[in-house]
Structures are given as C-alpha cells and as structure tokens.
Amino acid sequence: MIYETSEDLKREVDFMNKIEKHFNCLCHKLPMHWYVDCICSRNKQGVAIAELKTRNVTFGQYDSLICNKKKLEKGLRLGFHFGLPLMLFVRLLDRDVYTKVKTVLGLKSSMVHAKNHFEDLRDIKEHVFIPNEKFREF
Questions:
Q1: Strands 96-101 vs 136-137: parallel, antiparallel or unpaired
Q2: pLDDT at 7
Q3: Residue 33: helix, strand or coil by DSSP?
Q4: pLDDT in tens, 38-48
Q5: Closest CA to 129 of 67, 83, 80
Q6: Region of 12 on the Ramachandran plot (φ > 0 left; ψ -120 to 50 alpha; else beta)
Q7: Which bin fits 43, alpha (ψ -120 to 50), beta or left (φ > 0)?
Q8: Measured between alpha carbons, how far is 87 from 79 in angstroms, rounded to an integer?
Q9: Rg (CA), the chain
Q10: What angle do CA 135, 136, 137 make, to 5 degrees?
Q11: Predicted TM-score of the model (pTM)
Q12: In the chain, which stretches have pLDDT less than 50?
C-alpha cells in the first residue's frame, strides 16, 4: 500500500523548488515504481538521482537520520546504471540537509514501523541510520 497524500506531493514540490534554486538544476519526478523521487538535471544532462525525505525532528535531536534501505539500494543501482550519484535530501523542522550516498554497507540498520499509519502491521521496513556528520545544510 502507498501512503502519499496530495499534501505530501505539495510539500515534495516545494522542496524540489528549493533544491532547484540552490543547486541550479531541474528536478524531474520519477514514477513510483522507480522507488526514488527524481532525477536532477542541468543543461539537459542528468547530474544526480535524488531521494527526498521530510522528518518531523530538528537536526541533532538524534545522532542520525533514517531512510528506507530498499529505496537507497534502488537509487544506488539507478545511479550506477546512469553514471549518476545518489543524493539524499532531508527537510527537517529547522533546516534542509543533503548527503551523497555512496553505499549502505556498514550503516546501522533496523526494522522500522511507520509512525504515520501504525495500524498497518504490514508496513515494517528495513531502514538505515546515516550519521548526522555526513549531512551538509543548504
């Protein structure tokens, strides 16, 4: 089951607009079955595969940020196929941050149950914990 509301999509577009302005690129939304959110381009050339996340925490509230491991693995495969890096952009309550994801190997991982639809017992997925020091603010 997919849990993506029209409000989620609006927030994603707002976040993509900031990414486009800051990094001087265009964000092209990908179909859901690609697992990652978009491809970023500049001068009609792909420059990155991008996954966008929103978290209801402040930076430093925890020592790491989490992301679905399968999404990152799919993004890394797409990046390898197209010769593009995988970028993870995270919108927090107090700032926006990003990191280049090179691998998920060696990252702490755990099975995590989604908090926004806790009643769906099937929605438990493996997530990786990416240390805060890997992220840069933009």
A1: antiparallel
A2: 87
A3: helix
A4: 999 999 999 99
A5: 67
A6: alpha
A7: left
A8: 10
A9: 15
A10: 125
A11: 0.90
A12: 1
